[in-house]
Amino acid sequence: MLKKMLPSPKPFGYKRFEILAALFNGVTLFxxxxxxxxxxxxxxxxxxxxxxxxxxxxSVIGLIVNIIVASFMFKGGDTHENINMRGAxxxxxxxxxxxxGAIIAAILIWSFGWYVADPIASIIVSLLxxxxxxxxxxxxxNILMEGTPSNVDINQVIASIKSEPAIHxxxxxxIWTISNEMNALSCHAVVDNEMSIAEGExxxxxx
Length: 207
Fold this sequence. Notes:
Structural class: mainly alpha
Number of helices: 6
Distance between the termini: 27 Å
Number of domains: 2
CATH topology of the largest domain: Alpha-lytic protease prodomain-like
Helix content: 55-70%
Shape: elongated
Order of helices and strands: HHHHHEEH
């Protein structure tokens, strides 16, 4: 879909879909984390009889599956730079951490009868998920609100443009992100009368 030919009403195509998907992943994980914490707090006051053996077996199976999925995603996709892949990876990582927490809680319940270990593990894992999901959500919102990319120094970009002898001044400079692989820039430049349109186009495409 992202490689679909650009229709005229959509000059950047459908590249924002991956940002919307990342935002959905981030918000969903955040909400899930909050709901789990609320449920865990309830279990502090209304303890439930946990079947530690069944809990342990199911959690181990879940852990193995999530490790396999996470390893494929980590090797096959850009989980560092691609915000959409990072959001999907966090979904799997959240399940993986949940399985680890459940295994630890099951062992403590099985060995010492510490039923409180289950809600405590749930809260710890949920806080980690919320922290990670907030980063995805914040980055996605910054892109959708057309904020300047965090890895771009706008003053340095302006200085680089003004380094061209034929350009006398630059103002109204805006830099924003379309997708993970595409940034956009618009600015007004005061140029020398001797610079031709062809020379201006060549200078622009060099960036």
